[in-house]
UniProtKB/TrEMBL annotation, chains A, B:
One GO MF term attached to the UniProt entry: ATP binding
Origin species: Paramagnetospirillum caucaseum
Pfam families per UniProt: APH (PF01636)
SUPFAM superfamilies for the chain: Protein kinase-like (PK-like) (SSF56112)
Protein name per Swiss-Prot or TrEMBL: Homoserine kinase
Pathway given in the UniProt record: Amino-acid biosynthesis; L-threonine biosynthesis; L-threonine from L-aspartate: step 4/5
Catalytic activity: L-homoserine + ATP = O-phospho-L-homoserine + ADP + H(+)
Key words of the record: Amino-acid biosynthesis, ATP-binding, Kinase, Nucleotide-binding, Threonine biosynthesis, Transferase
Length: 326, 326
């Protein structure tokens, strides 16, 4: 929630002149996005998002992320499209940082997840998986099973500051996940961070419902089991604030997904394990951030214990039926 | 530089329904404004700013600020105009805070002040003073001479943390300002915070210059000597980063002002004293914020010493001629 890099009007003028987007009439820093600096850029032709990539993004990976957004948008998926400059490139430098302009996506992320939102999310996620099938680039998911142990070792000495049994819980679970992690599921392009703040909706007043208007923030996207994206969403969308799992939300999301891209028997069976892995991934990164972010910092820390409890839930799940599906 | 209050999509939907502004299609928190929470609100009809007033604003004073913006806009001054709801009122409540929607003002504030900007600022400031002349409400300037001593007393015990001689410098200067502060200058509506981030410009590519597009942030506006607004701008616009006073900038600003609203001989003679007072006001408030803001806080602290040096400069000014004018 911050602007890390302030862009002067002079620098902006020069940068925008590389594009055929009209005259800049406004440029305001957006208080969203914990990784990068985002500006809402308005010209006399329309709205755009200007992103400066900060240190947590590897510049070498930007062609993958921007290429993916362009690919998905070209296939009709609602997502930001990189705008190319007059020289044909979308990625350039601003204030010493890699920077790009992407199209503006209407909509707002929901702060209160309803059944409506879960029903919309499922088919849109499946459509994204289908649209990504022929994307030619690949990117390893460095926050999947092989990346968890090093993350664990880095937080291990201070894990007890979060919860007394956190170290033992993670150690046991990691052993299990490493031994049982599925290797033969259908693989493709996944978003890998489809939390509510990355999914936009627009209210359809006539119908009285919210309609999904697009996905944003593809900077964790990678090549991995497609069902792992679903597992991340089971965690991010189907628990209530009090920690209760809402099987109706899960059912609507999963059945909506399956109408667009059917899930194989193996994928369905793997869901509880994938959901444990997804819970582990966010338990580890949130624990890391919790221990390494000063309390007064500009970035609000997210509670790792939320994912400890979700992990515990999935550990007790006997089969995909408990996610509300037949 | 922060969003203090997060507005949920449900709350926003309900709030926006009180207005005749169309359907909300986007609402993004803006990383500007240290006092209030601002959202850039987009509907299918246009752009607006949604402001939630946080604790540093006295709710009782909001009718003055909103009334003033409405008054100035009605007289053709470029500034945000409060949008009234279907019930005819502009001020209502959102997330437990006073809140208002105002019109969106195109333009960007300049990070690099040029002669061009100073020449634009002068006449626009004078036009604002003229437009405010028949505004019926008044508001005491509680950050003028009578407010400085209480502020000083509150920072006095820790002033040495900023600079060894700060306490003595302020004590001596306060005695002088209280004894000599002018009481008979033309009084009217002043902005009282016309720093570069509150003045918007648009680039006129054909002419190769920036044109002023409007003033924002009237939440320090009050009734005081009109020339005091000019004195604030002498400090905020006419010093270089290295501390040097740029008399050419001052001359362009002052002469631009005088073409729209002539300055009396008394006002011209009082400028050096008013500039000392303006420097004192920001030296005191910045010192207060410096001593009372934790270093890691979301608000970036502004260096009080910048205004210590500006105060020292004006103490050495013999007459208005040193501001570049005849």
């Amino acid at each position: 929630m911050a602007v890390y890099t302030e862009v002067s009007d002079d620098d902006l003028e020069e940068f925008a002149a590389e594009y055929d987007i009209g005259e800049v009439v406004s440029c305001k820093g957006i208080a969203e996005g914990v990784e990068n600096t985002n500006y809402l850029l308005q010209t006399d032709r329309g709205n755009y998002i200007l992103t400066l990539y900060e240190k947590r993004v590897n510049p070498d990976e930007l062609p993958f992320f921007l290429g993916l957004m362009e690919h998905l948008a070209a296939r009709g998926l609602a997502c930001p499209t990189p705008i190319k400059g007059r020289d044909g490139t979308a990625l350039r430098t601003l204030c010493g940082r890699p920077a790009a302009i992407v199209s503006f996506l209407k909509g707002m992320w929901t702060r209160r997840i309803t059944l409506n939102h879960c029903a919309e999310l499922g088919p849109a996620m499946a459509a994204m998986h289908l649209a990504g099938a022929d994307f030619p680039m690949t990117r390893n998911n460095n926050l999947s099973v092989s990346g968890w142990r090093p993350l664990f070792e880095s937080i291990r000495p201070r894990a007890a500051e979060i919860k007394a049994d956190l170290e033992q819980t993670i150690a046991d679970e990691l052993d299990y996940l490493e031994a049982h992690w599925p290797k033969a599921l259908p693989v493709g392009l996944i978003h890998a961070d489809l939390f509510p703040d990355n999914v936009f909706f627009l209210h359809d007043r006539a119908a009285g419902v919210d309609r999904m208007s697009g996905f944003i923030d593809f900077y964790f996207a990678c090549t991995d089991a497609l069902a792992y994206d679903i597992a991340i969403c089971l965690n991010a969308w189907c628990f209530e604030d009090d920690g209760a799992f809402n099987a109706t939300k899960a059912r609507l999301m999963l059945n909506g997904y399956r109408k667009v891209r059917p899930l194989s028997a193996d994928e369905l069976l793997a869901l509880p394990l994938l959901a444990r892995g997804a819970a582990m991934r966010f338990l580890l990164t949130r624990s890391y951030d919790w221990l390494n972010t000063p309390p007064g910092a500009m970035v609000k820390r997210k509670d790792p214990m939320e994912y400890y409890r979700k992990l515990r839930f999935h550990q007790g799940v006997g089969g995909p039926g408990q996610y509300g599906i037949a």
